[in-house]
Design brief:
Length: about 325
Amino acid sequence: MDLKIDPEFAEKIPPLTKEEYEQLEANILSEGAVLNPIIVWNGVIVDGHNRYRIIQAHPEISYTTHRKEFSDRYEAIAWICRNQLGRRNLTEAQKKYLVGKQYAAEKATIRNRLGVNQYTDEVSGQNVHKPPAEKTSERIAKEIGKNERYVRRSEEFARGLDAAEAAFPGIKHEIFSGTIKPAEKSVAAIARASPEERTQLAEALRKPRPSPGRKKTEPLISTGPPSPTDNEEEPKSERPTSALAISESMASTPERKNRDTPVETIIAELSDALEGMIFRWDFCLNVNQPNASLEECRTQIRSLAAKGIDYLQHIKEDK
């Protein structure tokens, strides 16, 4: 029986090390057969890629298959990721990648009552209500013993890693193997960057991570006497009036007031907003060097940072 290998399925399988592969091959040759069946869906392998590779090199080896049924390829991918997460020898990067891919696949395969993907905006020209994605992420989080935030960040990490690999082939293996250990947010940032920037950003993942903290000689928030610029009246927000109007309109909408929103959902929303702000600041400051280090720019950065700190302090003190 000729089995098929789907490249998208195969890439979800964390590769064995040379020693692990040789040990698997030795075990199979010693038994004279593949004891565990190769699992297939419509003739396509979903589990057993390494065993099948060994079988092809040793046609005399006997094997069996086990058929599974999935509603679509996304359900198959989700199953592959969930199955691979059961392996004990995974690195943290491999775990995050699999969790992220499982989450993305499950979101893609969930259908609403009209039979349309829950993340499709229109059905026959009419907008439909989108079921919340949180239910999927919450369930996966419980399955793997993590929080929902870990699941959502893993999806961003996986998307960024795929973008990095496409721009700079081989970088995924370096990260999976632990040869390099870039910051998760640096990996995720690559998916959001323009195609022209991705190669440079992917290559930058190889650079050693800076030590935590900032030098006291160059504080982002000035700790000394205020400069003349610091005493100047803070300019009014240049946020577009249309954005303010939209925000006020959304907040005043009856259905958005006094909602019985679960506490965990509120915290997840705020956490997302905070993480998004941190990511955007880091990304902007990193990719816009050396201009971001000019005193003219740093002075305005300090002013913006002080404004944000004042607001968060206001929240922290329950004012």
